[in-house]
């Protein structure tokens, strides 16, 4: 992308990231959670493999691969597997995106706890704001549906798992190209998720255009294009800008979920979304001091 358009990359990344929730919700209308997990990571591994060899990137040692597999359990299998099960139980794409707004808070808390440090009360307050906003939305949306509540709890667990994985991965500075590290984790996730899907659910999907479109989007847009955008931000030094606008994920996800997954946000739920987003902004403000 030309230099004068570099400022658009974080905003494109925001759209790509936010679109994954509604696309997963749409795909789950035509398949099962572990099947979707297998399709996503098998497809991602097949798409990324040619890129690794075309770019002639150095392959990891077995020791490095084992480290990547360990964090991949949290980052990919734990996060997406739990989220997909939660969505299938009834949780909305909107509530999953709302939990994502709390991820920066959870990363700070996890990093501090691993380092055996007590986070500031201001960080805890940011987390409480985010969870209070999410609880507001859950209370409005669930309408007595216990499946929705359980699914939402699994969604929060998914974000906690990803936060733990990200903290561990940042503490391990492996001498590898980021694409290679991601590629190893995708291969491992595919090796695990395919047999798990076959043993627990069988091979199942409805061959509809919506299914192929949503799964293709998860593989190509959220996986490949998302990685390319992330690398572009790292090279251009705009990762901090992307982090700064991630509090907009719930709003962007809600906009996308309306035409894609048929989800709408009741007016009474908007204060909860704003509270969760305010918690993310609050945390970023005090974490930078």
Mean pLDDT: 83
Order of helices and strands: HHHHHHHHHHHH
Total count of strands: 0
Secondary-structure-derived class: mainly alpha
The total count of helices amounts to 12
Spans of at least 5 consecutive residues with low confidence: none
Summed up, the domain count is 1
- Beta content comes to under 5%
Spatial separation of the terminal alpha carbons: 33 Å
| General shape | globular
Describe what this molecule looks like in 3D.
The protein is mainly alpha-helical and 289 residues long. It has helices spanning 9-27, 33-54, 62-89, 93-100, 103-114, 121-142, 146-171, 178-200, 209-236, 239-245, 249-261, 270-287. The chain contains 12 helices and no strands. The model has no long low-confidence stretch (mean pLDDT 83).
Q: In a few lines, what is going on in this structure?
A:
The chain contains 12 helices and no strands.
Q: What are the defining features of this structure?
A:
globular, mainly alpha, 12 helices, 289 residues
Task: Indicate the topology.
Elements: H1 9-27, H2 33-54, H3 62-89, H4 93-100, H5 103-114, H6 121-142, H7 146-171, H8 178-200, H9 209-236, H10 239-245, H11 249-261, H12 270-287
Helix pairs in contact: 1-4, 1-9, 1-10, 1-11, 2-3, 2-8, 2-9, 3-7, 3-8, 4-7, 4-11, 5-6, 5-7, 5-12, 6-12
